[in-house]
Every structure is written in structure tokens, then in C-alpha cells.
Task: structure prediction
Amino acid sequence: MTKIDFYTGSKDKLRTACQLSHKAMQNGVRVILSAPDAATNDALDKLLWHYPATAFIPHCRSDAEEAGQMPVVLNQGSDKFPHHELLISLHNECAPFFSRFERVIEIVGKDEEDARLGRERFGFYRDRGYEMRHFDLSDSPKK
Result:
């Protein structure tokens, strides 16, 4: 069954997606980065060319011929994937194809609306019995 990780309190969801993609790539895990729209997909594409600052993350779009060989694949609107290891979702709702993946990462920002949508996704997965973990990225001190 798919394992779900929630990263909440992100100051910059795209940068968080790049950081998590880089970490996965370093651990030999291939990533599908799924964006809700072309503008987000384009912004991710540009950011991945410069992240980390001393290198870049090899990537391509899901419709590219080389997608099967890339550690990170950008997806927007497709439900055909070259692998099913890790899905990093930037959608406001659960991606309909999430259960095809071994692991899903949901990134939730700091604003109230994004947090509300994140809670809805969390509840969806929880109510269906998925194994979940939570990572708080906010820099507020714990009490």
C-alpha cells in the first residue's frame, strides 16, 4: 500500500519540492513531480536547473523521450508515468493516480487556505487507512 508523507509549514512549496527531489535522487529514488498547471510546471523546471546552487537536478517533462532515464520527471495533466517510486504532489486535492506510487509526498504551505486543503487531503488518506507520517517544516519553536 502507498505510504504518504506530509510536509507542512513550507515557506516555499516549489523550493521544498526541489529539496525533497534532490534528497530522493541522492538516495537513488526516482521522482515524479506533479504540478496542477503549466505555470507551476514551468516554475519548477526553471528552479530545478539551479538547485542546488552548485549543481542542478537532471529532469525532463513526462512526455519527453528520455523520461524513463531521468531521476526527476515533471508531470502536468498526464496519468502515464515512466516509474511509480515517488510522487511529489503540488495539487490542492489528492491526485487521482496517487495509489499507483510506492510513496507520495504532499507539501502544505503556511497560508490558511493551503493548510485547510492539506487537512482535507490528510483526512482523505487517513480515512482510507494509508500509512502516514508528518514532518513540520515551520520554524516556530515547539512548546
About this structure: The mean pLDDT is 93.
